């Protein structure tokens, strides 16, 4: 090493090689990755976000030189990003359906006090069943719907990850939807 060459931080070297690695992957497989993701999502606008998330995750890989097959690794990461996106979408769809159902029930209650009492009892029974069946899913639903907490605020309260909170919410909404369908 020449004495007049400036010393470089090893972390900077690693960061530079990571960027080069990811840039090369994007140039080589970017188009195919976009097609892969677009064929698997309902909303085309989500594809750009998913691609960005894939490459951001690749930038976080510390030892990219240990990856034997970069293309396979790229698609593995993309599959994980896609499955998380699908879970998030399903939870959002369930939440919307459940919210619409609640709004319909509340709208029909305005005119009939007897129906209001019956619906309150139904929700109470539903809550007890959910609490017995899945206590954390119940806690997530209560904290989110009744206390107005964001999912990211619920995660530390329950001592779980953000993704786990999303799963609990999806589980709670699915449970409620199934029970309500059984009651009809």
Report on this structure.
This protein is an all-alpha fold and about 180 residues long. It has two domains: about 10-85, Rna Polymerase Sigma Factor, Chain: A (Orthogonal Bundle), CATH 1.10.1740; about 110-184, Arc Repressor Mutant, subunit A (Orthogonal Bundle). About 80% of the residues lie in helices and about 0% in strands. The chain is built from seven helices and no strands. The protein has helices at about 10-40, 45-60, 70-110, 115-135, 135-145, 150-160, 160-184.
Mean pLDDT: 78
Give the fraction of residues assigned to helices.
over 70%
**N to C succession of SSEs:** HHHHHHH
- Low-confidence spans: 1-13
Q: What's the structural domain tally?
A: 2
What is the top-level CATH class of the largest domain? Answer: Mainly Alpha
Report the sheet-strand fraction: under 5%
Number of helices: 7
How far apart the termini lie comes to 79 Å
Number of strands: 0
- What would CATH call the architecture of the largest domain? Orthogonal Bundle
Overall geometry = elongated
Q: Summarize the main sheet.
A: none
Named CATH topology of the largest domain: Rna Polymerase Sigma Factor, Chain: A
Radius of gyration: 24 Å
Which structural class fits the helix and strand makeup? Answer: mainly alpha
């Amino acid at each position: 090493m020449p004495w007049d060459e400036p010393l470089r931080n090893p972390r900077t070297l690693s960061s530079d090689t990571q960027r080069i690695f990811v840039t090369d992957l994007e140039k080589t497989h970017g188009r195919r990755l976009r097609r892969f993701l677009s064929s698997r999502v309902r909303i085309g606008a989500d594809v750009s976000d998913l691609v960005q998330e894939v490459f951001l995750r690749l930038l976080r890989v510390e030892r990219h030189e240990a990856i034997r097959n970069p293309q396979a690794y790229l698609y593995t990461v993309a599959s994980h990003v896609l499955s998380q996106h699908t879970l998030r979408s399903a939870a959002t769809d369930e939440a919307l359906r459940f919210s619409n159902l609640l709004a319909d029930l509340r709208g029909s209650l305005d005119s009939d006090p007897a129906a209001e009492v019956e619906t309150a009892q139904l929700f109470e029974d539903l809550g007890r069943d959910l609490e017995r069946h899945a206590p954390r899913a119940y806690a997530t639903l209560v904290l989110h719907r009744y206390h107005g907490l964001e999912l990211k605020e619920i995660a530390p309260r329950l001592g779980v990850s953000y993704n786990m909170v999303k799963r609990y919410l999806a589980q709670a909404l699915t449970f409620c939807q199934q029970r309500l369908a059984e009651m009809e």
